[in-house]
């Protein structure tokens, strides 16, 4: 049975056997990784939590391949602080059960100076879990460890502590370390998320590596500055689709994250940059947000932007997305969609909305918002059709909204022929 099937079926016994007995280090490494990912499923099997941890502890201590030992330590991290501490206790021969967290942090910090790299790795990981800042300087010092595996886990631990004090040290590794450490440091700076941490990521937004670029543009949505807008707008034309998509999500997020004293400036800058961007690079990702995202602020900002940047080639696609959003569960999002539609008149929009209003099987909220739009963009055709519609609809709400739209279009269509 393949490792994929063992993972899918949560075959803990066979995975442990592979970890302990396979002559292939790649299989042992992957088995450790899978055992870590399956931590939440141990309760529904014949294998106990402790049995899995025992196997991982042994692999962390004794496997002859450093990649397997590292994978086992990371897997122990998935099983929680107690699992890590069991490994640390066995390797250092120290009893750290029933010790106060601050004291435990000091004991673990001593492990950062151990001869065995695996113990330094586990100590860094454990300190990140505890989150005590009384050992921050010791963790920062491990960013210069001779073993890159320790440097990676020190960066990961500092991300968990989320202390802005470590940003200068992390920034050095961001630019000068080997690739896998740089990636971990970039994630750490993104997680810390302070303005100085995010500013460091500006410099890798155009890095040669797409993973680093994606991490940077993902985080810059929280920077809330005009500089971030310019960088993210440039990333919309990145050669990699994932970077382009992430950049648009970040721009939409930035609309929400911008500080109040700069929100208008940032908002106008975003609109200006997106209008100048290739329309496919700006409109299509916004439409994708509406089709995929369930986050309210993202959806609100996406519909707001669509009405201000969609033009010509993608107008109909933008209209389609906005029409579907008229029935959004969030009232503000549906209102924004209606307002944006009023800015995208043309390409048969009036006729499509009239048809929508007259289709009884359509969502009533969608039809109400469509009537609002027709009151803004409609002409004589809308006035005539809506005059007939309000006379036959059985919905009081639709009738009220219909009369409101008609009044904006010049009043009711009078019946033809003699009035006598």
From TrEMBL:
GO terms for molecular function: oxidoreductase activity. Gene3D superfamilies: Leucine-rich Repeat Variant. SMART domains: EZ_HEAT (SM00567). This is HEAT repeat domain-containing protein. InterPro entries: ARM-like, ARM-type_fold, PBS_lyase_HEAT. It comes from Natrarchaeobius chitinivorans.
């Amino acid at each position: 049975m393949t490792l994929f099937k063992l993972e899918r079926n949560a075959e803990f016994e066979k995975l442990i056997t592979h970890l302990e007995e396979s002559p292939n280090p790649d299989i042992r490494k992957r088995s450790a990784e899978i055992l870590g990912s399956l931590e939440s499923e141990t309760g529904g099997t014949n294998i106990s939590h402790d049995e899995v941890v025992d196997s991982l502890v042994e692999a962390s201590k004794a496997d002859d391949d450093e990649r397997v030992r590292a994978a086992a330590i990371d897997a122990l991290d998935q099983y929680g602080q107690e699992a890590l501490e069991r490994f640390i206790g066995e390797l250092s021969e120290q009893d750290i059960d029933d010790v106060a967290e601050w004291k435990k942090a000091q004991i673990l910090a001593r492990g950062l100076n151990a001869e065995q790299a695996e113990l330094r790795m586990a100590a860094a990981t454990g300190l990140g879990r505890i989150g005590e800042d009384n050992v921050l300087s010791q963790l920062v010092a491990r960013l210069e460890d001779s073993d890159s595996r320790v440097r990676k886990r020190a960066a990961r631990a500092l991300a968990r502590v989320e202390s802005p004090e470590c940003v200068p040290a992390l920034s050095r590794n961001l630019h000068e370390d080997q690739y896998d450490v740089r990636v971990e440091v970039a994630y750490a700076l993104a997680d810390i998320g302070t303005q100085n941490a995010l500013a460091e990521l500006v410099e890798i937004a155009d890095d040669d590596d797409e993973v680093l670029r994606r991490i940077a543009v993902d985080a810059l949505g929280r920077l809330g500055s005009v500089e971030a807008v310019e960088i993210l707008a440039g990333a919309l034309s990145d050669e990699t689709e994932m970077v382009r998509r992430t950049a648009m999500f970040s721009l939409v997020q930035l609309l929400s994250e911008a500080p109040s004293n700069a929100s208008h400036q940032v908002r106008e800058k975003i609109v200006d940059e997106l209008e100048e961007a290739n329309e496919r690079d700006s409109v299509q990702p916004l439409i994708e947000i509406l089709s995929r995202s369930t986050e309210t602020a993202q959806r609100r900002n996406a519909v707001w932007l669509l009405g201000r940047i969609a033009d010509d080639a993608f107008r109909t696609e933008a209209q389609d997305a906005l029409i579907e959003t008229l029935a959004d569960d969030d009232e503000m999002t549906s209102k924004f969609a209606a307002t944006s539609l009023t800015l995208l008149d043309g390409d048969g929009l009036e006729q499509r909305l009239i048809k929508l209003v007259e289709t009884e099987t359509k969502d009533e909220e969608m039809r109400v918002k469509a009537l609002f739009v027709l009151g803004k963009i409609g002409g004589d055709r809308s006035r005539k059709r809506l005059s007939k519609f309000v006379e036959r609809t059985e919905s009081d709400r639709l009738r009220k909204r219909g009369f409101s739209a008609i009044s904006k279009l010049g009043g009711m269509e009078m019946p033809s022929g003699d009035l006598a």
